[in-house]
Structures are given as structure tokens and as C-alpha cells.
């Protein structure tokens, strides 16, 4: 079993489920409610592999954006370190958008 399995599972899970969040905007990610399976999966990856110094929190009148980078090792083939940034963007729940926010992931070069 891979040491970095949870991290890669979280990255592929968020990438695989990502979609356009709002029909009238270009926001792309996975809609989440705090405490749901996707939030738990990402929090586990951040807990085990997160770079604490990379954490960035921006607070706005309408919500909050939290970014955190994780480092994973591709131990199956190259052994190189790969970095991914998870971003959570909160939003106010409405009837039209009944979720707390969305998460997206991107590779950091």
C-alpha cells in the first residue's frame, strides 16, 4: 500500500468530480457542504501532506477563500515530489445553490 495513497485519492477525487459550479460564471470545482465526504477527504490529505507555511486565508464580506498546498511523492515510477494546491471558496447557501462552498485542485509547478 502506498504511503501517499490518501493524497492522490483526494486529488483524483476532486479532479474527477469537478464541474462548472454556477451556470452564469466560470467557477469550476466540487460543491461541498462542510463535513461531507469530499471535505473529509481533502482535510485528511492536508493533515498528512500539507505544507503549513503555504496556508493562505482571504476573508471577504461575502465569504472566505482558503488555499493549502500538499506535497506527494510519485513513488510508483519517478520518485519525484509533486505539489498540488487545494482551494476552498465559501458561499452563502441559497435555494438555488444549497451548498457551503466549493473545492478545486490544481497542480503547482
Overall shape: it is globular
Number of strands: 6
Strand share of the residues? 35-45%
Instruction: Give the rounded overall mean pLDDT.
Output: 92
Can you tell me the residue ranges where pLDDT is under 50 for at least 5 consecutive residues? none
User: Quaternary state, please?
Assistant: single chain
**How many domains, as an integer?**
1
**Overall SS class:** alpha+beta
Q: Output the strand order for the largest sheet.
A: 1-2-6-5-4-3
Secondary-structure element pattern, one letter each: HEEHEEEE
Helix percent reads 10-25%
Summarize the biggest pleated sheet: 6 strands, antiparallel
State the helix count: 2
Radius of gyration: 14 Å
What's the N-to-C terminus distance? 26 Å
Question: Can you describe this structure in just a few lines?
Answer:
The chain has helices spanning 5-17, 37-49, and strands at residues 19-20, 28-32, 56-59, 64-73, 81-90, 101-108. By secondary structure, it is an alpha+beta fold.
Description:
The protein is α+β, with helices and mostly antiparallel strands and 109 residues long. It has one domain. The chain is 24% helix and 36% strand. It has a 6-stranded antiparallel beta sheet, covered by helices on one side. The radius of gyration is 14 Å and the shape is globular. The mean pLDDT is 92.
Amino acid at each position: 500500500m502506498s504511503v501517499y495513497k490518501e493524497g492522490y485519492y483526494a486529488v483524483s477525487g476532486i479532479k474527477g468530480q469537478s464541474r462548472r459550479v454556477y451556470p452564469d460564471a466560470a467557477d469550476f470545482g466540487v460543491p461541498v457542504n462542510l463535513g461531507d465526504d469530499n471535505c473529509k477527504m481533502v482535510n485528511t490529505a492536508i493533515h498528512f501532506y500539507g505544507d503549513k507555511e503555504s496556508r493562505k486565508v482571504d476573508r471577504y464580506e461575502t465569504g472566505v477563500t482558503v488555499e493549502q498546498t500538499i506535497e506527494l511523492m510519485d513513488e510508483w515510477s519517478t520518485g519525484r515530489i509533486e505539489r498540488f494546491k487545494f482551494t476552498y471558496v465559501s458561499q452563502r447557501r441559497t435555494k438555488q445553490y444549497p451548498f457551503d462552498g466549493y473545492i478545486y485542485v490544481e497542480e503547482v509547478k
